Amino acid sequence: MGNDDWRRLLCPKCKQLKTTCTCPSEPPAPSKSTVVRVGRETKRRGGKGVTVISDLPLDEKGLTELATKLKTRLGTGGTFKDGRIEIQGDHRDRVVQELEGLGYRAKRAGG
Ligand SMILES: [Zn+2]
Fold it and tell me: How far is ligand 1, taken at its centre, from the CA of residue 72, in Å?
C-alpha cells in the first residue's frame, strides 16, 4: 500500500516524471481517483465469457479508442456499449496490466 504512489507520477512510456515528459498524451487524462473495474460475464456467450471493463472515466470517443487499443494488444475481438468495454474471452489479468500501463487504476472484479 502506498508503494505504487510514485509510479503514478511517472509516464508509462518513457518513465520520466509526467511533469517533464514530452510524450503526446494518451487517452484524455484518466481521473486518478477512479478505479476501473475489470470483470467477466459468461451468461450471454455460451460459457466462453467476455471480459467486461466498467467504471471507465471516458466519453464515447475515449471508449472507442481504448477498446480499439485493447483489441489490438490482446489480439481479440471486442465491443463497447452502455459505457462499458467488452473483450471476447477471459483476459482480465492482461486487461488490468494494459490499463495500468495506460495510467489507469484497474482492479480485477467478480469471479
Ligand atoms: Zn513520456
Answer: 21
